[in-house]
Amino acid sequence: MTGNLLLGGGLTAALATMAICFAQKIPSARLVKIIALISAAFITAASLLLWILIFENDFSVEYVATYSSTTLPTIYKISAFWAGQQGSFLLWLMIHAIIGAVLTFRRTSAAALGIYFLLQSVLVFLVLVKSPFAEHSAQVFEGVGLNPLLQDFWMAIHPPIIFVGYALLAVPFALSLGSLLTEAASRNWLEEARKWTLLAWSFLGAGIFIGGYWAYKVLGWGGYWGWDPVENSSLVPWILAAVLLHLINLARKKSAVLAQAHVAATFTYSLVIYGTFLTRSGILGDFSVHSFAGSNIGMVIALVNALVLIGGLVIILVKAKQFPQGELYKSYGESSFIVLLSCLLMIFIATIVWIGMSMPLLTQLVGQAAAVDSDFYVKSTAPIALTLAVLMIYTFVKFGRMISLGGKIAHVGFLAMLAAIVISAQGETVTQELQTRAKVSIAGHEVIYEGQVFQEDERQKFYVYNVDGEIVKALTKLRGNGEDAAREPAILKNFSGDIYIAPHAPKIDSVQELMLTKKLFAMDGEFGYVFEDAHIDYDEHNQPIQATAEITITDGEIEEVIHPLITVTPDGGSSKSIEVFNGKRRVRLTGISGDLDKARLEILPTYEKLSAMPITATISTKPFIWLLWLSVTAICIGTMLAIKS
Amino acid sequence: MRGIFLIILLVGFVAYAGLNLAESVTPYVSIAEARATSNGVQVKGLLDKNFEPVQTSDEFNFSLKDEVTGETMRVKFDGIKPDQFDEAYHIVAVGKYDAADETFHAKKLLIKCPSKYEGQKPQA
User: Is the pLDDT of residue B115 over 70?
Assistant: First the structure.
């Protein structure tokens, strides 16, 4: 409730900023700064509130109960903020609002500020439509917790960096439209837009690369890019922002390119919104591995998208007559021509990715839904990317001295990235079932599977391998109920590249379930069980908090008594597994009936048995993959350096 | 001259992208429709529990059941049983039907799991 009120305050102040900027020809700079700061303060306060709710384990808020838990480590409590859709939007909004406040302190035109704060108002509205502060219908005492896959340093920082990129791309869009509305022939906005676009490009790129690195080291399917709609939806604006960047640079020298720069600014930002629509509306439910629950927010985002794209294009068309005329290029050897041609090629690549990711949506409109193969992207974009690389090398040789240091680093980084993508894909791959101590030879390396190591707290285990004498471990995080939650690969890093070992899902013996009735004797093979007693603790609202049972287990001679405890979580909950008779049996309690008459006990495979089980693993080599990480770092750093020049 | 250059480039691109697209696009179809064509398609269904999936060293066989009609179809996948196959809610097989061995030859399997983290409602 308080959160929504704070957001309401942020919305009011954003609308006021917009109104002042649009209403008055030369608004009081001081007033604009103050209201913009108030809006940012309200929105930041709402964000801080969400963090406080997460840290206080306030599970009466549905978002907190869904993405956090009492046991979550501090760093992931911070990142639980953006684990779900509602929180991600709030994060995006907060970054947008802070950038907005910064803009009022730079010499930004009133019209551009008006557009920027219009966008800010729309974003607040989107957050309010699906608020992270919504209350929970039921009372719980433990949250579901953050998806173990997301409990990784890189995944913790990936979303904020992506959203900084998205939020920053609103600046060139606002500057472009602001300039069109007041002095369409002016090129004064270009210098400021150049800096912001470089910053945006660098952040969005870094976000995409970090996402790829995370996929490589955590997901274990062996790659860093899967052409999934969620990935594509950030790639398209990034490519278009590169086009925008080059057109802005060219337009500063050649007035005839001004129109193209305006068009690029509109398309870039509208593709940011489009990507959000595609991935957050649930429309791709059947086609993406990231299946988001469908929601009414889809229509709202579609409307915003239409507003940005159609609004931008209409204004450009209306003002088109005022654009300066001139020559785009004199000869085909000229640098302007090469840059324009490169932009066209980048637009081609963006179009291919756009068509691919939109295919399910486009085909649904005309009839039968269809999707494209991921081969489509590689096959179609590779020749274009190659041509782009050739053009880039040509430009370097011929016009190298005209390119700034940052620009040089970024372009060399880009060429190195293309090379690394090709080289790292030339490795070998073997998929094989491995007994403990089994040996596999691959590309001159020897891999020995050493077995599994279980950790006491049952939250993780390791598959241990010996690669050329070095021990590497593949971490598998386990859910509260003992199932695999995140199966990470083991990676041995070498100068010649990585040896990448990804375990597959283990063969799970069917878990035996015993339904025990109070005081009645039940058997499982050589062991007998008696459910003696149980106790459920309720809160003041008569909701269960935790449940304990007393169960006697006997092998016919000796009796052992266990007291498994279940803490109630949104997904029900089960006790930790308990070993009896020196590890000969492992059991856990998964439920107690409300009348305390029945208890459900699971007989789990023993650790000894689990450790000796053969596993299937895919072992591959990734030649010189470090070049990929190095080159993308160069792209981001070079781009940052270019801001100063 | 310049206009012509641009038009040639654009037409070339559209033809190129269109051809690639026509090759790669795989419509979502029912099992009955998949049987009727030898083109690449995607079929979504449930695991047919009456047929125990078999994994040999290099291929994985199972039976897919149409959610609506209940019709079943044998699927052969050249590879290892995907992770989470056993927990799958929906299975999407991408490939083409071969009338000769009455089997769907999948080159890719997509597994849709009931998400444990999205939209879950608490229970007492």
Answer: no
